[in-house]
Amino acid sequence: MKVTVNRIAHFNAAHRLYNADWTDARNANVFGKCANPHYHGHNYELIVSVKGEIHPETGFVMDMKILKSLIETEIEEQFDHKNLNEEVREFKTLNPTAENIAVVIWNKLRPKIDKKLALSITLYETSRNFVTYSGE
Amino acid sequence: MKVTVNRIAHFNAAHRLYNADWTDARNANVFGKCANPHYHGHNYELIVSVKGEIHPETGFVMDMKILKSLIETEIEEQFDHKNLNEEVREFKTLNPTAENIAVVIWNKLRPKIDKKLALSITLYETSRNFVTYSGE
Amino acid sequence: MKVTVNRIAHFNAAHRLYNADWTDARNANVFGKCANPHYHGHNYELIVSVKGEIHPETGFVMDMKILKSLIETEIEEQFDHKNLNEEVREFKTLNPTAENIAVVIWNKLRPKIDKKLALSITLYETSRNFVTYSGE
Amino acid sequence: MKVTVNRIAHFNAAHRLYNADWTDARNANVFGKCANPHYHGHNYELIVSVKGEIHPETGFVMDMKILKSLIETEIEEQFDHKNLNEEVREFKTLNPTAENIAVVIWNKLRPKIDKKLALSITLYETSRNFVTYSGE
Amino acid sequence: MKVTVNRIAHFNAAHRLYNADWTDARNANVFGKCANPHYHGHNYELIVSVKGEIHPETGFVMDMKILKSLIETEIEEQFDHKNLNEEVREFKTLNPTAENIAVVIWNKLRPKIDKKLALSITLYETSRNFVTYSGE
Amino acid sequence: MKVTVNRIAHFNAAHRLYNADWTDARNANVFGKCANPHYHGHNYELIVSVKGEIHPETGFVMDMKILKSLIETEIEEQFDHKNLNEEVREFKTLNPTAENIAVVIWNKLRPKIDKKLALSITLYETSRNFVTYSGE
What we know:
Oligomer: homohexamer
Strand order of the largest sheet of chain A: 3-1-2-4-5
Strand content of chain A: 25-35%
Largest sheet of chain A: 5 strands, mixed
Helix content of chain A: 25-40%
Low-confidence stretches of chain A: none
Number of domains of chain A: 1
CATH class of chain A: Alpha Beta
CATH topology of chain A: Tetrahydropterin Synthase, Chain A
Order of helices and strands of chain A: EHEHEHHEE
């Protein structure tokens, strides 16, 4: 009896889309106004999904208080009110697209969650754009 | 050509998280304020998802009016404005976590829906916590 | 230059609608399934609105961190995961309708907020029912 | 490393549910008020989901500006502020249920999107009814 | 102690914007694609707001069950799954803009609600456009 | 017969809260993580509200297509995907709090809208914080 439990969190961050190997003109051409060197920002909405068996004693797949706390420590404290390009190590050399941010979040949370549980990350960059990554 | 059709419904209920085999202290320790013996409550949002072939004459996988009516009879009438622990038979001996409520809803609806159709249940306990169960 | 600033918070609570001066039959007749003696519950969404002049040095009408903290101390800690009828002093003798809960919240917050600022409370009981009280 | 990227769009359209091979009485019986010959309408919300590898140079699975533009040209311009039964070729002979609209949208977009990318369509007909089609 | 109570409802309808005193060209020029003679449609979201004193015995400004029932009888049954121009008497000679629909709804509900209570109507035509009318 | 018409728009921007007359320590103390010199950002949601008489020929208070276009030219083009502190003239010397952004937007739109129409601005900085300014 496998159930997926999902926890929603938020962080507000600045970023720009930029490939350091390209000229500024090519960056502007590919990324448009998202390449603005002065940065812009988003209210990111994050859904962390964990799938596994229900524990018969607790009725939980995973204690949501523990998952909430993990998201705060591993993601919110490191991303919230930050400039992703300038202040988050992973994005020094990786373009902080929604796709890449989702992969980075998955990589940060995966080692902290029981291996028997499947992990999936959904990230809304705006109310009209979102991505999902499940480690496949 | 398989399509999933989804119907959203709501019920408002009281519950507490509690394992009758444990001491009160252990219940308080594991379930925190959710173990409050005076109960608290939620506006539960339920998404019932049914997947199957489109019927060529109607263009329906399943008539939504029938699905809506099934949810009313089987779930809303039995859960809405109720105390889940005290008034719903299944939770007399089962902790009403979101995970377990989703499994109970799946078990109640599964016999009422054509076996050729796959069934999945999503249940929001709050706007930040939700679970999904597909009978696997 | 008066601006209204609004802060949204949530609490999950059990309640029942009940007038102790009435018979059970009359309570059931007037309040319907909301009178269920075993209680039901809601995810309440609270909007606290404060109107006043923008402070020229900060650009704030009121520091949102302080308002957030006030709501946590005065409202969330006292209402969240509680049974309003049984555990909140004001509702021992007052029917916890959305209207009365909004008035109680206003009365609790009013003395804690600068008199020069106007205060208004909006409370969603469900996604389809909400109330507003401004102290008039 | 496969990520799903999702883009949300909207169109407002009139339709009625109707099988031309049936009598009016049978249409009314099966489709209820949805068979009204004067039409009714909806604000359709469309989620187009595209799954594939992240391109290492851009960090994109697919450029969202291109996907947005495709949805505008192929779907919004043809469906928005239209009568689906009267003005959209596919529904001259196909009942415009949410299921069939999702399949038609999938069929329109599939040839325009790189074959290496998987495509899935989610369509909300109302805030309580939605369908998903993935070409299976 | 005056509180505003608000009840949300929905109806799905077809309409077109059209002034019968104008040429088709002028209608097309002013109303754009909203003038499409084949109609388009919307999921209208309606908020009915009633302001007055809290009744000391019930804790209600107005019984929400009565307000819900009034909205069903007076508005939903007459507008839902209808073509506003063709099937709703008031719009035979009145352009069914969101503004005019809100005024018509206010006029229909005002005589049914206690004169001591103030009435206000909010109507969402889409998730990006809405109007409010308070009888002023 | 006065109706308020409301149009919703969005812009994504970077900002920091900062008073140039203060020390960095005082900025950090008052504005907390919002003072981060590397900036953070938000998806701002803007509601522009215009109140006036319904024009009898059109049924409009104001043509929404014109209002939408005004918001695009005056606000979105100047704020979207920008760094408010660095790239928007008004915030060179004014702290871009939600309150001040709302006032700046009101001041930009007021001269472009008929004086007979009242104007009000609502700005969501996050899903939990929003402000309203009506020119009073």
